[in-house]
Amino acid sequence: MSTLGKKTVEDIEVKGKRVLVRCDFNVPMKEGVITNDNRIVAALPTIKKLIENGGKVILCSHLGKPKNGPEAKFSLAPVAVRLGELLGKTVVFADDDTVVGENAKAAVAAMNDGDVVLLQNTRFRKEETKNLPEFSQDLASIADVYVNDAFGSAHRAHCSTAGITEYIKDTAVGYLMEKEIRYLGNAVNDPVRPFVAILGGAKVADKLNVIENLLNKVDTLIIGGGMAYTFLKAQGYEIGTSLVDDEKLDYCKEMMAKAEEKGVKLLLPVDTAVAASFPDPIDAEISVEYVASNALSADKMGLDIGPKTQELFAEAVKAAKTVVWNGPMGVFENPVLAAGTLAVAKAMAEADATTVIGGGDSAAAVMQLGYADKMTHISTGGGASLEYLEGKELPGIACIQNS
How far is CA 192 from CA 163, 325, 346, in A? Predict the structure, then answer.
């Protein structure tokens, strides 16, 4: 398994050098308290490796979407505290509205080998998302080496994810990024066959390029979730009040024809869980009945795959050697309508295969349903994972030096 030819933290010499690491500390917060520290925990191996090797470790990340520059509620101060607890050492927080200001410069100048400094939210600088050289140069001015370990932002060409590499040539990816390239990248570009991809979620429009790219690579493509109803309608079936994207009917027909032409098995739901309307609130009690996909009545709404489909999809998964899954099979936030998603998660957990969860809602679903530790890899990116599955080159990876 390759890391697609990129230098990793294992390949660089950092002793005595200032190493700027772009992490993904975009954690959920409620009133200044971190409600889930998964992303901070995930960053620890790279940070510890750099500390161990005697680097001066300077961390940066964005948090949320501050619209007009600095806002107290988007400060990374709580992250510095939590990170210090997890590392068992002081993390100096350089609180500059300009990110690289007097505090950051002084903190970096005072560093000994193995020390850790965290900079303020990179999006406090308007230049960040526009990838303007002023901020990239500021970041580069306090570092000798650059490491990108923020896969969730790798599809963005921002100052802290890409622009900085114009000014620092000694670059590498961190362990998280390496794992994403290895599992997500290789699953799609060099899979052990049979290769099965499972796509779900609400909208066909979100997955257009993914469907098209994967049809060139997979042996079997499984489609569930809300987007399946547009495919079913394209086959001429009644779909009642189910979610549909009428503008994409022709596209669905094209994709079904393309699958046939390429000899790819395209599996769609053969039965569906229907109810009178969408649950409100989303986790409200709901009574459903199961009907064949070609027997949906005009006044009903499909909300999950049915038991026969669960079996059909599970069989395909269990016969596979590589499985990539992106998007739930139904309204998994509702216990009654989580059955389809649960069945797919269970089949993947039991499969003798490399199993990759392609980020977003399916990652949340697998964690919620308790199958996280049974998967080979759970991608941490949302948009980044999707763009990878679309076969795009991600700017945050492309800019790292080749090994």
Answer: 35, 15, 21
Task: Give the CA angle between residues 368, 373, 374 to the nearest 5°.
Answer: 105
Active site residue 39: yes
Check if 396 is active-site. no
Give me the catalytic one of 7, 39, 49, 56. 39
196-249 pLDDT, tens digit per residue, is 999 999 888 889 899 999 999 999 999 999 999 999 999 999 999 999 999 999
Spatial contact of 218 and 358, defined as CB atoms under 8 Å apart: no
3-state secondary structure of 336: helix
Catalytic entry in 327, 330, 340, 360? 360
What is the model's pLDDT at position 1?
46
Model confidence band, residue 3 (pLDDT cutoffs 50, 70, 90): low
Distances (CA, A) of 207 to 52, 201, 253: 42, 9, 15
Q: Give yes or no: 203 in active site.
A: yes
Q: Flag the least confident range among 72-76, 200-204, 370-374.
A: 200-204
pLDDT at 5: 86
Check if the beta carbon of residue 284 is closer than 8 Å to that of residue 249: no
Residue 383 designated active-site: yes
